[in-house]
């Protein structure tokens, strides 16, 4: 059964997934050279140093957007797992340094960033990608800063964004579980560990008040689950959930695999290509999570 989950999941990615997910799958499951992932990521890069071209598939805008930089960093981080010094490789370091320069050029003076800009309105996009994404916030500023701290970046924009995030966290995180995902990236990786621990002590209190948090594995609606927040057993946030909750969501994740081997999505992308691209992203996420927890 476990081999069937992995085999059919990979077959779906081979058939329907984007090149970047296929390359990353080969690195994570076969030990392939991560250089090829860098080449795939570079295809989404713009001359300004940012990333676009629908790296996040729910909008098809070619222009650089902060959310697409976040997607690029996630792929690079996954490809670099267990490879000390990899982020100092010139090809990787150049992509990251240039992206930081771009983020600094479009951020507010205090360092805060929105998810997107109005330039995307000239291109197909999902309905939920609307003007609320133009407002700077913890989503994505905290998450971008956390990812870059994890890599070990130093950059003037990152200094500003980090201080802005600390100040913003004094007022809480709002009501959206997506923001919590970004904040947890920050708290797990920011260098000031004492301050991170003090703020992290509030996470359990925040959790039960958030929209889109899906605590019940039987809930079929769209949402952020415990497995998004603690995608591996050694996650610093695994302790937020008891074993029954994690096992229930792992059972649900396994059941959600479709007959074609891929995982479905619970929102409406702008077109068929976007749907398949996001199904590939979710399929790779599911396979990585199930493997981390010993299910495959």
Structural description of this entry:
The chain has 296 residues and is mostly helical. The protein has 13 helices and no strands. It has helices at residues 2-16, 19-30, 35-42, 66-79, 90-106, 138-151, 156-169, 177-189, 193-200, 203-207, 226-229, 243-255, 272-292. The protein is globular.
Give a topology summary.
Blueprint: H1 2-16, H2 19-30, H3 35-42, H4 66-79, H5 90-106, H6 138-151, H7 156-169, H8 177-189, H9 193-200, H10 203-207, H11 226-229, H12 243-255, H13 272-292
Helix pairs in contact: 1-13, 2-3, 4-5, 4-6, 6-7, 6-8, 8-9
Keywords:
single chain, globular
Proportion of residues in extended strands: under 5%
Percentage of residues assigned to helices:
40-55%
Global structural class: mainly alpha
Q: How many distinct helices? A: 13
Largest sheet: none
Q: Output the radius of gyration.
A: 18 Å
Please count the beta strands (DSSP E, at least 2 residues each). 0
The 3D shape can be described as globular
Mean pLDDT: 96
Oligomer: single chain
Distance between the amino and carboxyl termini: 9 Å
Low-confidence region ranges: none
Succession of helices and strands: HHHHHHHHHHHHH
């Amino acid at each position: 059964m476990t081999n069937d989950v992995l085999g059919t999941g990979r077959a779906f990615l081979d058939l329907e997934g984007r090149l970047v997910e296929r390359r990353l799958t080969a690195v994570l499951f076969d030990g392939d050279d991560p250089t090829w992932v860098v080449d795939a990521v570079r295809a989404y890069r713009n001359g300004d140093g940012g990333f676009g071209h629908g790296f996040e598939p729910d909008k098809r805008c070619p222009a650089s957007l902060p959310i697409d930089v976040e997607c690029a960093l996630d792929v690079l981080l996954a490809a670099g797992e267990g490879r000390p010094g990899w982020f100092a490789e010139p090809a990787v370091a150049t992509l990251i340094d240039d992206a930081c320069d771009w983020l600094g050029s479009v951020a507010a003076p205090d360092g805060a960033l929105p998810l997107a800009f109005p330039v995307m309105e000239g291109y197909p996009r999902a309905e939920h990608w609307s003007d609320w994404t133009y407002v700077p916030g913890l989503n994505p500023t905290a998450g971008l800063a956390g990812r870059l701290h994890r890599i070990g970046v130093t950059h003037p924009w990152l200094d500003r964004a980090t201080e802005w995030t600390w100040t913003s966290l004094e007022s809480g995180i709002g009501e959206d579980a997506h923001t919590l995902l970004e904040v947890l990236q920050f708290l797990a990786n920011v260098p000031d560990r004492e301050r991170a621990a003090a703020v992290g002590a509030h996470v359990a209190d925040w959790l039960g008040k958030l929209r889109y948090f899906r605590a019940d594995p039987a809930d079929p609606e769209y949402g952020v689950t415990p497995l998004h927040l603690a995608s591996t057993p050694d996650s610093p946030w695994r302790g937020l959930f008891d074993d029954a909750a994690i096992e229930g969501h792992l059972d649900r994740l396994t059941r959600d695999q479709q007959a074609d081997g891929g995982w479905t999505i619970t929102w409406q992308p702008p077109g068929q290509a976007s749907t398949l691209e996001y199904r590939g992203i979710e399929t790779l996420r599911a396979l990585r999570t199930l493997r981390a927890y010993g299910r495959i």
